[in-house]
Design goal:
6-PGluconate_DH-like_C_sf, Rossmann fold, 20% strand, aromatic amino acid biosynthesis, alpha/beta, prephenate dehydrogenase (NADP+) activity, 32 strands, EC 2.5.1.19, tyrosine biosynthesis, 6-phosphogluconate dehydrogenase C-terminal fold, 24 helices, binds shikimate-3-phosphate, 4-stranded mixed sheet, globular, UDP-n-acetylglucosamine1-carboxyvinyl-transferase, Chain, single chain
Length: 751
């Protein structure tokens, strides 16, 4: 709730009027006055009940104000600030001044000219909301609801002033973000000013043609959608283009270059170029929709709570059927990365259309790679060669994915351009020193945030040298990062792993004709080679299959076959561990597809027993432990895991997150630093544990594991914060329902 005793809005148009309207609806108790050169607008504002009073003379309205909002056109700002500086008494230091101008650098300059510098009580801001309508008559209380307001405070800003402006906008239902003046102006030039310029220009061009009446008469949805904003206030937009000249010109240059390329493609009938551009644009548009719809995609500066998804799983149910789970996540990331760097066209089948791999795909589009799809798991990548990537316009956002961030770090360290890698809130907490440190040894210039956390800033053009790196932890991500950097390094890059980890990078590089050698625990490659495109068939992800393997392993009467699952020897820890626990699990129709072993896995219920998990299986089942803990809770006797400290730095601290959930269900367990003991209560006849409400902490695998656990619970299990299941397994709920589980999805607000 906003508690300003008296708010003065200078400029009572659509923006200022809607601010008053939204505050009124929020229950704002203070006085709202307005100043506008047009007395009719002020009178209308009073009549509409938006403002208490107002006038046309600013100097007469300043008594007792606590906050002034400048909502006048950009070029009128300086005059208004001048009047404010003369009219506000020197004692009024508690008065906060803010604005709503669409450009920030020029307004900051106004303040500097008027006040000598931007005083600490001025907080410049910009609500990203509006409409083509103008005037207070168009004011609406909903204008700012769920819209963003960008504040661009100066370093000397008064913290209380900043907080009060934030509260003002939050009271209107807006989401408040902060960024620098410079960044604001660049971002807005591209996302708002350029489209307005184009809309004005298109309508003007057509309106001047002789047959304009016919053009407008027959213009259908496309024209209307594209040109709606050409009806906007001309004065306001004139001011914006004058004020944000440089940033607009630079975005116009980029646009003209793109238009020239398309013109050329149309002229020469270059269907490949047309398809590549349209496909890129169409996918980018869908991707941005996802961003705007607030699924788990969130650009770094949009960071905020996720769209909440809750699973409610009724106890019991069956585990029956034949299923195919989506493509392997590790291989999907790598297929895009290597396909982009290859010479020629790479056709991928079985690509995982999960949010993480889609973020990787989008990042390469942002580096100029033409990628078609995905359409039902098929992706076509038009490789640009080892040195063909282009500098992205902004930070590359890799969502929830540690794999993407670490592999990208290696790959980007070898590029000629600077880059920045960001991710979601969970990723921002994960350790990146494990890749930044060895990359620095290779000569890379790479900066992390405090404590070696994301974001990562990578300087382009640093010459890399091959190193021999003895990895302190068994991590395929670190190994892959260094091999990818090694492609660009002088000489040989060697990596020794303390235990075998997934080798998809090595296999796929070999598949692209790039020699990676291995002897025992060490693999290596020579820098400076090239990749040759070839087809990639991504098998189903054994990590996703695991949830259904465990479902069948714990449910009396179960019989499930999972088709076309990747059974790479570095990934089959879950098969080995379940087999040791006594599971009836058989591999059928074993075959090799595109350099990776694949099989159908059939699993039928037999009672499980607790075991000591062999330490050498830990890296081979690293992502499968949350589900295996559920298997352990249903076994007879104790299952003991050690040597698994890496679980603590996954999408959540998976030892603790699982222990907390098991505690809710009433499963006896003991946590140790590098593992856990779980006392199973397996008995065919009765449930193994109770139900309850569990926080998945936004970790997809924790969410899915507890959903499966409900098959043997005595009561409903409710799991919060499940949106991130979409990062690796978008169809999970549908498949779980298909095998006979009683899962439903709810919004957090309904439960
Ligand atoms: C992955 C490696 C593993 C795994 C992750 C995917 C990969 O991480 O947990 O889900 O694709 O290389 P670490 O290498 O850090 O153990």
């Amino acid at each position: 709730m906003c508690h300003e005793p008296r708010l003065l809005i200078v400029g009572l148009g659509l923006i200022g009027g809607s601010l008053a309207a939204a505050l009124r609806v929020s229950g704002f108790k203070g006085q709202i006055t307005a100043c506008d050169p047009n007395a009719n607008e002020v009178a209308l504002g009073v009549e509409m009940g938006l403002i208490n009073a107002g006038g046309t003379q600013l100097s007469q309205l300043l008594d007792g104000v606590s906050m002034v909002v400048l909502a006048v056109p950009v070029l009128a700002m300086e005059r208004v600030m001048q009047e404010l500086s003369e009219g506000l008494s020197a004692a009024a230091t508690n008065v906060v001044i803010t604005d709503v101008g669409s450009t920030k650098a020029t307004i900051r300059e106004c303040a500097e000219r008027v006040f000598g510098c931007v005083p600490p009580n001025i907080v410049l801001g910009h609500p990203i909301a509006g409409s083509e309508k103008s005037g207070v008559a168009a004011a609406t209380p909903a204008l700012y609801a769920n819209h963003k307001v960008i504040l661009t405070p100066e370093p000397n800003v008064n913290a209380e002033a900043l907080a009060r402006v934030k509260v003002l906008w939050q009271a209107c239902g807006a989401e408040v973000l902060q960024m620098s003046v410079e960044r604001h102006d660049q971002v807005l030039a591209r996302t708002s000013h350029l489209p307005h310029l184009l809309a004005f220009s298109l309508v003007d061009t057509l309106a001047r043609q002789d047959e304009r009446l016919d053009i407008f008469r027959y213009a259908a949805g496309g024209f209307r959608d594209f040109t709606r904003i050409a009806g906007s206030d001309p004065v306001m937009w004139r001011d914006i283009f004058i004020a944000n000249r440089d940033a607009v010109l630079s975005s116009l240059d980029d646009f003209e270059a793109g238009l020239a390329r398309l013109r050329q493609a149309v002229e020469s009938g270059d269907s490949d170029a047309l398809i590549a551009t349209f496909d890129r644009a169409s996918h980018a548009r869908h991707y941005f929709d996802t961003l705007l719809n607030k699924t788990s995609y969130q650009a770094e500066y949009h960071m905020q709570p996720q769209g909440k998804v809750t699973y409610r799983v009724s106890p019991g149910g069956q585990a029956q059927g034949r299923l195919r789970v989506p493509g392997d996540k590790s291989m999907s990331h790598r297929s895009i990365m290597l396909g982009a760097l290859a010479e020629g066209v790479t056709e991928v089948k079985g690509f995982l259309e999960g949010e993480d791999s889609l973020a990787t795909l989008q990042a390469f589009r942002e580096m100029g790679v033409a990628i078609e799809g995905p359409h039902q798991g098929r992706v076509t990548i038009h490789g640009v060669g080892m040195h063909g990537l282009k500098a992205p316009a902004g930070p590359l956002y890799v969502g929830n994915s540690g794999t993407a961030m670490r592999l990208f770090a290696g790959l980007l360290a070898g590029q000629a351009f600077d880059s920045e890698l960001t991710g979601d809130e969970s990723l921002t907490k994960r350790p990146m020193g494990r890749v930044a440190d060895p990359l620095r040894l290779m000569g890379a210039t790479i900066e992390t945030a405090e404590g070696g956390r994301p974001p990562l800033s990578i300087k382009g053009g640093a010459p890399l040298k091959g190193i021999f790196y003895d990895m302190p932890m068994a991590s395929a991500q670190v190994k892959s990062c260094l091999l990818l950097a090694g492609l660009y390094a002088e000489g040989e890059t060697r990596v020794r792993e303390p235990a075998p980890t997934r080798d998809h990078t090595e296999r796929m590089l070999n598949g692209f004709g790039y020699v990676v050698s291995r002897e025992g625990d060490t693999c290596w490659l020579q820098g400076g080679g090239k990749l040759t495109a070839g087809p990639i068939d991504v098998p189903s992800d054994i990590s996703s299959a695991t949830f259904f393997l465990v479902a069948a392993a714990i449910t009396p009467g179960a019989d499930i076959t999972l088709e076309h699952v990747g059974i790479n020897p570095t990934r089959i820890g879950v098969i080995n561990i379940l087999t040791l626990m006594g599971a009836d699990l058989v591999l059928e129709d074993e075959r090799e597809v595109g350099g990776e072993p694949v099989a159908d896995i059939r699993i039928r219920y037999v009672p499980l027993k607790g075991i000591d998990i062999p330490v050498d299986q830990v890296p081979l089942a690293i992502d499968e432990f949350p589900a295996l803990f559920v298997a352990a809770a249903n076994a007879q006797g104790t299952t003991r895991l050690r040597g698994a400290e890496e679980l603590r730095v996954k999408e959540s601290d998976r030892i603790q997150a699982m222990a907390d959930g098991l505690a809710v269900l009433g499963v006896e367990h003991t946590v140790v630093e590098d593992g856990i003991d779980i006392v199973g209560n397996g008995n065919d006849q009765v449930a193994s544990y109770g139900g309850g409400r569990i926080d998945s902490l936004g970790d997809h695998r924790i969410a899915m594991s507890f959903a499966i656990a409900a098959l043997r619970a005595s009561d409903t299990i409710v799991i919060d914060d499940c949106a991130n299941v979409a990062t690796s397994f978008p169809d999970f709920v549908a498949l779980a329902q298909r095998i006979g589980m009683n899962v439903s999805v709810e919004s957090a607000n309904d439960v």
